[in-house]
Specification:
4 helices, 24-stranded antiparallel barrel, 566 residues, two-stranded antiparallel ribbon, mainly beta, single chain
Length: 566
């Protein structure tokens, strides 16, 4: 084992001078010369552990590596990403295997920025992404990069037009594999301030942006049969949206409406119902105060270039999450809410306030308080019967909340700096979570009611040294009952760090499942290079980013993670 870790460390040190990884070769990296990039390798070993359900794959290890190389010269840039899955780390898409080029592009932007052309792979988003979002989320194993041509035109100040045409990344087997569907789209953005003001909008107190887009997909058709009907599957499916954004002093507001024609797919049971979405937000900020409100109703807006796939495969669009993205372990991984692609009505509100320093409540350095609430329900619908039921499935009665509760998420966070060497942060969560909607557990079906308490402290113990701790407690009468988590992380800045984490399901009804999930890690940072080595148990759970989740199996073993950039 020591020889393996030694080899991986020096292999990474050598390769970081050749290739590297970023958010994609198309993105700008930190390098100052014409050639830049970054690199990352993740290696994990597996040991059998019957108590936590950890299994050992035939190869006994997992290995994900990737590196980006980018060349820049004037307005021209080109690059590629080399990927390797030998075999993929458990929890990552298992069909990703082998080594090869997973992303390559060439791009030219004119000196005036009026013309921007990309051929090959690229990532793109129209508006909020409800109609088109091509992106990579490596931690979830999501990569639906476009492969084709993108043209961005800015004919005059204040007008931008984007067009895309291509296929989507679907798989990886010793190289990039695209799906069969073809995606075409156009997006227009209008900045009224820049367009009509002689000084680029500076004379207008209110900033106004308008946008609209249209996206269509083509996939060879076929038929579906029921007891009474034989229906033809549409080959061309279109979706579109309109958006408006306003800003004035501390106020901001916006809305986007999207629609999609009939699109029978595995997601909606191959019904021909039309899709719709309406999203709106309102915010206000001034020194020390911030308020934001978001509302969303989404109905049958799943949009894929392949109608027959599910989960993470071939998504053309992205349905934004309404709930807050939690970072603490128990709140983020036990009951994380995933956006329901079939449809939901949701609402969220957040208030942030900075209590002034020098006051009774603010203390010497001030106190920050934030309050957040989010709620999501199913749609207000009536199921249809007969032929109409086969074709449309249901009828939506209104945009308001339906009778089925999906989630309620209320949390309060208070953070305070006590002295130059010590600060703390306390967070309270109250969750109501429907595990029938988001199946994050196999042991309980229904509503989970949970309270979570988190106390985080940071103590500067010496010059360039600090100790950070987290004490977390989850209390519930449902599912696996109560959990506790303790984290301690010591940093010797700017190079070394070490941490230990223990999770314990201390009131599980089955005493055999009361296991300490202990994981320890140590690492070193040297400029743009970062190496960490960890060992221990990881519990089975759900990992989410932005309302998109994947299941992570239980594991026991070593983990080595090395990254670098140049």
């Amino acid at each position: 084992m020591r020889k393996t870790l030694f080899l991986l460390f020096f292999l990474g040190l050598g390769l970081n001078n050749v290739i590297a990884q970023g958010d994609g070769p198309e993105s700008t990296t930190e390098g100052t010369g014409p050639v830049s990039g970054n690199f990352q390798v993740l290696w994990q070993s597996y040991s059998e552990d019957e108590r936590i359900g950890a299994i050992v794959p035939p190869e006994k290890t997992g290995y994900n590596a990737y590196g980006n190389l980018r060349y820049n010269q004037g307005g021209f840039s080109a690059g590629f990403r080399y990927e390797s899955y030998l075999n993929a780390v458990l929890g990552f898409p298992g069909r990703f295997k082998g080594s090869g080029i997973g992303y390559r592009f060439a791009r030219y932007a004119s000196p005036s920025q009026n013309v921007d052309v990309t051929i090959g792979n690229f990532y793109e988003q129209f508006g909020s992404g409800i109609v088109l979002r091509s992106y990579e989320e490596r931690a979830l194993g999501i990569d639906n990069a476009m492969d084709g041509v993108r043209i961005i035109l800015r004919p005059i100040e204040g007008i931008q037009i984007k067009t895309i045409y291509g296929k989507q990344r679907f798989d990886f087997d010793d190289g990039l594999i695209n799906g069969d569907g073809i995606v075409r789209g156009i997006d227009g953005d209008l900045d009224l301030n820049a367009l009509f003001s002689k000084k680029g909008g500076q004379n207008w107190k209110t900033k106004v942006n308008l946008g609209a887009n249209f996206v269509s997909k083509f996939q060879a058709g076929g038929t579906i049969a029921s007891d009474t009907l034989i229906l033809t599957l549409p080959e061309n499916v279109g979706a579109w949206s309109y958006r408006l954004d306003l800003m004035r002093k501390g106020w901001s507001a916006g809305a986007e409406y999207a629609a999609k024609i009939n699109d029978p797919s595995a997601d909606n049971g191959y019904t021909y119902r039309r899709g719709e979405a309406l999203m709106a937000h309102l915010g206000f900020t001034k020194r020390g105060l911030g308020i934001s409100v978001h509302a969303k109703t989404v109905d049958n807006m799943s949009f894929r270039s392949d109608r027959d796939v599910l989960l993470f495969d071939s998504p053309i669009n992205y349905i934004p999450a309404i709930t807050q993205q939690h970072t603490y372990n128990l709140a983020a991984t036990l009951y994380p809410y995933a956006t329901v692609i079939s449809g939901e009505s949701s609402l969220s509100a957040e208030v942030f306030y900075n209590i002034k320093k020098g006051t009774l409540l603010g203390g010497k350095y001030g106190t920050n308080v934030s309050v957040n609430f989010a709620a999501a329900n199913g749609l207000d619908t009536t199921n249809l019967s007969g032929v109409q039921g086969v074709i449309d499935g249901y009828e939506r009665q209104s945009w308001r909340f339906g009778p089925t509760k999906f989630v309620r998420d209320f949390n309060v966070q208070i953070s305070r700096k006590v002295s130059k060497t010590f600060k703390w942060k306390y967070t309270f969560y109250n969750l109501e979570f429907n595990t029938l909607t988001t199946p994050v557990t196999t042991t309980f079906k229904g509503m989970v009611y949970a309270d979570i308490h988190v106390l985080e402290t940071q103590w500067k113990t010496a010059k360039r040294e600090s100790l950070r701790t987290e004490f977390q407690l989850l209390l519930t009468d449902q599912d696996k009952r109560d959990w506790g988590t303790i984290l301690a992380e010591y940093t010797w800045s700017p190079h070394w760090f070490a941490s230990v984490l223990d999770q314990y399901n201390f009131s599980n009804p089955n005493e055999a499942d009361r296991v300490h999930y202990v994981y320890a890690a140590v690492g070193r940072i040297e400029g743009p290079h970062r190496l960490s080595i960890g060992y221990g148990k990881r519990r089975e759970g759900i990992f989410c980013i932005g309302g998109v989740c994947r299941a992570v199996p239980a594991s026991n073993g070593f983990e080595v993670n090395f990254s670098s950039s140049f």
